[in-house]
Amino acid sequence: MNWCWPVVEPCYNYGLSYLCVKVGHIWKLKKNLVLLTSALDKLSAERDVVLNRVNAGELKGEQRLATVGTWLSQVETIETHTNLLIEVASSRNASSQDVSERLSTYGCWFLTCDLGEEVFKKLTQVQSLSGAGQEFQEVTEQPPPPVVQVKICPKTVGLDTTLKKTWKSLRRDETRMLGIYGMGGVGKTTLLTLINNKFVEVKNEYDVVVWVESSKDADVGKIQDAIGERLHICDNNWSTYSRTEKAGEISRVLRDMKPRFVLLLDDLWEDVSLTAIGIPVLGRKYKVVFTTRSKDVCSVMGANEDIQVQCLSETDAWDLFDMKVKCDGLNNEISGIAKKIVAKCCGLPLALEVIRKTMASKSTVIQWGRALDTLESYPSEMKGTEKGIFQVLKLSYDYLETKNAKCFLYCALFPKAYYIKQDELVEYWIGEGFIDEKDGRGRAKDRCYEIIDNLVGAGLLLESNKKVYMHDMIRDMALWIVSEFRDGERFVVRTDAGLSQLPDVTDWTTVTKMSLINNEIKNIPDDPEFPDQTNLVTLFLQNNKLVDIVGRFFQVLSTLVVLDLSWNLQITELPKGISELVSLRLLNLSGTSIKYLPEVAAAALDSCLLKILEQLKGLQLLTVTVNNDSVLEEFLGSTRLAGITHGLYLEGLKVPFAAIGELSSLHKLEMVNCDITESGTEWEGKRRDQYSPSTSSSEITQSNPWFKDLSAVVINSCIHLKDLTWLVYAANLESLSVESSPKMTEIINKEKAACVGVDPFQELQVLRLHYLKELGSIYGSQVSFPKLKLNKVDIENCPNLHQRPFKRNRAVVNEEDRISQLPEALILQILSLLPTKDVIATSVLSKQWQSLWKMVPILMFDSCDHKRKLGTFSKDVCKTLHSHKAPILQSLHLDVDFDTCTAIDIGILLGIAFGRNVRKLLLDVYPENNKSNRPFNFPPTLLYTFETLETLILRFHALVDVPSQICLKSLKTLHLDYMYYEDDESVCNLLSGCPFLETLVVSRAACGDGITTFIIEVPSLQSLSIHDENDGVDHWEYVINAPSLKYLHIDLEKGSEVCLSETSLELVKAKISCVTINEKLLGSLTSVKMLSLLFWPPLEVKYPTGSIFYRLVYLEVYTGKPAWWNLLMFMLDTSPNLQVLKLLIDQWHKIEDHVVCEKWNQPMKVPECLLLHLETFVWEGYEGKRKEEKEVAKYILRNTSRLKKVTFSKTNCSSEKRLEMLEELASVVKTSSSCQFEFE
């Protein structure tokens, strides 16, 4: 045995060691269990501490460290397993407390051994995790920046279209940079916020979206700091970096780590260098979007596309205001005032929001009315406007250069919504001295146009067809700026104020500019309150009613630089004191009758006026009217006045062509009853001087161009003129009007204009030629009009002119007049939708439209448009009908009342209409106010000659008196709405005289119409509608014999019944609404295919017996009447082939909850249609409140086997309630799984 011990000993030792370990686990099980419980409690407490720290960090937007997350996950796992193990060990330990028992019990030894070992392992694991939580110095860290930081954005109105356009542009690969521009407060930031949030939808395509809020005083450093914060690269050393170093860091991150970036820059005021900021712009994966108030910034930044955010439309503005204020709760009067207040905001969202806050607490008409008055007269005094609106808008003003700011404020002198011609505004600015003329007048004008472009680009002016205007809120802001004396300026603006005298001004010495345009001022008296000296520089008195101005007024205005008295038609003279205006530079006397000065003899009056004007050494711009040959000669001889004349109006003169050409500053020329004198020698000489060969080539160049600034010419009643060839030199002519010049044969004579080398009319946009009987051509056959606008061409009574400018240049069409490009048939169709008075108004648009209205096939006349005196309506209509040239008068609608038209007049109009072969006639007749006139007697004789009439609609106060049979063989549609009838025979004669009548509509009022039995016997009738308002006082009856009837609609009240004399086998659809069941009527509808029923049956009803609706496939039953289910079951029992069943709610006759109804009694036999044919079941307005409703619904669902679609709809129902009802009803459906069950 000794030889085998060495072999056995290792096994013995291993076995003994294993046995000792196992026994030790069993022996220490209780102790280890206690230790494990204690260790787990300690670990749990440690876990709670760490978790609290993690939660605190996450509240700050941080995220847990990965090691902390792993440790917490391990603790959670081992805690779950350990608790389960402790529970098992404790239960087993309690069942055998003695160790020896555990060791000796058969079958338990190994189980206890394994349990002890498992407890020991868990104890070791728990102890290994313990203490690690205390070692965590940090448990959270700053997370990596999210791709998109969603920004809160309020609900918007009116931005959907702009958002779609912007987003579509951004999604294009070629779009790298996008500019969004618009005036302050228009919604640019809101749009950018919406764009930022939309990037969430495509966040996987980008690495980061960076939002930077710029501002007026933001610089590159501040933008870099904002980007650094967003990218989380701003450490403790960031503030010590130079701009170059910051740019390098930003560029490194965006280039190497986040190349697919989006940069959103809000509110840029000037261009910024993206490279200086550190934005890498060499790749193709980035996007840059910025907002700005200036379109120029978009250009300088190099945006691929510019998108303008415009003010809201009138509808959208009201919707936005209504959404905020809840105007539905306001009465009609307040609502009307609210709409006017909204209109004052002109669609500016900022203004709407500020006004909304101000008016939120206002609830009375007085408060709203007071607010409207304040907003109209003194907007700056409206609560919130100064700080909330004007201060925001003023930022754009503050950013302007001093010169541009002055020019901007000047525009506020003009009336609200006034379109200022740019060339006139330029002259005003130059006259004011805003622009220096040291480099010449041409350069000064160019500078003015540049300022206009800058103001338009900044959103402070709006542009339209070479005119500019101010948004109402921008104008109010400008007036707020100049309302107080600041920087030596103060404006007084009282335009359209209804003033009859100069306004009360407390301190005239502080006022520098005054505008009183469009008022009623007749004279300026010698007011003692005038100061001895003022500082007034600008005075606008256009379009008043001035007759007299005292001399002292000009004496105290010696500082006046600009004086505009234009369009004061009644003023004939200026006082001698006008010579005191030594500083005057711009004087506008156009549209006045000024000729004389009071102290001078009549023979020399006009000459004296010219001498006084010459004494105004500062005068730089003059618009004047001349109607005397000697004065014109003297005027043209004045080099000074000729050089500053901007507008010249000539009346009854012989005008020397050559001298007019020398007026270098002339912009507008108008000649009435004048003749232009010229000689062949003079023409040839001037032409040689005008165009001379270039020194470098044989090209012809302008040396001293005539009419270089002439833009508008008006020629009227110049009876001796044969041509206007001198216009060949007006290279910048934009508008030409020639009228009533009977000897004019051509506009440009080709022989005179030969060798000039210039194509005329290259800038022409407006052309008006009227009453030129001899005019044969404009300029031979070679002329082209590249800028001529189609809707600005008006040629009338020029019978020999076959050369039409728009025919040779159809490619050049004004986009604003697209309707004129449409086919004539389509234009006529559009015009047919308008009242005739509006259609006739289109005749003034152009020659093309002059006669177009006469071909419109539909005419509509309303006597309400002729509230003048009796008879004018019929005369106007007669005149129009006689002028009408359409081959067929498709429709005539006469809406007349006896206030403006007599019965005889109506008869005459109808006679004319019948003579025009009208096909459709609508006649609405109303009685005279507060009088009970006899109804208009429709002339029966006309009914014998109405051969083309297809539709006749008679309504209201008219009488049908047809004593004998008539013949309306073409009539197919007849409406008799609330008519009067002479007797029963009249109805019979009328209807029997319509052998091909297909549609009949009868409406009758409760007051009666002269008959009780209405007989309808028309074999051809296919559609019949009866609306009866009988109140039950009389018994009315309808007898219907219409074998071809297909569509029937009967709506009866009390006291009426219907009798279908024979069953119509053609009937397709019927809708019956009656107060009581009519057995005969219901029984005569057995051939119908589609039936809608609304009855109010009593509790017991005798339905027609033996009636089977074999053809009925579609049934509607209204559920608003008590015991409606009785009618439903009758129809189900008698409609074996029914496929569609709809139960509808009648909102006017809903069953109130307190009404006691007959109980639902389940039928003994299931209707055949439910078992075999019903496929669609719809119940609209299902309430489910009444037990009877639920039982009916469940009965139908339970007994149908072929249902394909079931729909229940209910309003004002919560989703939980809807789900509950759906489950309850769906549970009883006896059909295949293919049935579509919906609860809307």
Main features:
flat, twelve-stranded parallel beta sheet, 1240 residues, plant defense, WHD_DRP, 15-stranded parallel beta sheet, F-box domain, 37 helices, leucine-rich repeat
Q: In words, what does this structure look like?
A:
Helix 3 packs antiparallel against helix 5, helix 6 packs across helix 7 and helix 16 crosses helix 20. About 4% of the residues have low confidence. The longest helix is centred in the N-terminal third of the chain and has 31 residues. Helix 36 links the parallel strand 47 and strand 48. It contains 37 helices and 49 strands. The protein has 1240 residues and is α/β, with parallel strands linked by helices. A 15-stranded parallel sheet has the order 29-30-31-33-35-37-39-41-43-44-45-46-47-48-49, with helices on one face.
